[in-house]
Write the structure tokens for this entry.
Amino acid sequence: MLNQDSEYQSCIQNSERVSWRVDELLPRDTVIDFSRRILSDALTGTESISCLSAGEKLALNQIRSNSYAHLFLFLEEYVVALMSQRAGLELHGNSTHMRALLRFTEEEIKHQQLFARYTDMFARGFNVAPALLDNHVQVARAIMSKSHLAVLIFNLHMELMTQQHYVETIRNNEREALDPVFCNMLKHHWLEEAQHARLDYLEAQKILARAPETLDSAMNEYAEILGALRGTLSRQLELDLQTFEKAIGRTLTESERSEILAAQERSYVWTFIGMGMKTPLFLSRLRALSPAAEQRVLELAPQYYCN
Ligand SMILES: [Fe+2]
Ligand SMILES: [Fe+2]
């Protein structure tokens, strides 16, 4: 058996060092600056849409940014289920592992509360009520119907991707033009996700040390989760367009709608799926688990705009 106690202990220490409170990061009297873009264009893909005015691009960027916060709140529902189950497996077992996994669980619930507070603030300040998906429990149950190994690999993908999101947001001097509240949230989200990504990998190693033959089927399930996530993103995009038409006070023509849908579908899939598959640390972690796992991701990548 692997002895990774020092790694789990190091995750606890780092978690204690970077820990933050929701009230510090997003005080209840925070005001969102709706004169600025919120997320980088690298994550929202609104600037290249030719049929929109500057004001309309700004509104779509803001709607996408709010949906980003909601989708993390939404997706972290399965992480809470996964990590509380992983922690429960260490009951009367390794207390260091259990403590690290319980901290992980608690932090994800905190992240959900942070994103929920943000979307509430957004709804209060934006000119129309945003439409957001509400089937988070159903999606979490569908993801949790897969093996723990598959969900850990998917979670490793998602958590390493949050670092890419922060990096994309602060580079190219774009940060000056963006609302600092969201940049700060992305930074602090990543500070805790960094330990989570290490724990995903350690837990995946733990499973593979006992049952190496389960990797192939876990990679098939990972591919199924990505396909289902793509469907969830499309449904949120439909809701974004409903919110957008209300926000700009006009109905889009058929050609405008198809241009916006194509650009936004590409942006959603790249931001939530493709960018994670291209993250170098994700690929190197998979290679360390098994070269076949990395190979499978490289084969899947082109359908998620990873050319
Ligand atoms: Fe999180
Ligand atoms: Fe996380």
Summary: The pocket of fe (ii) ion (ligand 1) is lined by residues 76, 108, 111, 189, 193 (CB under 6 Å). The chain is about 75% helix and 0% strand.
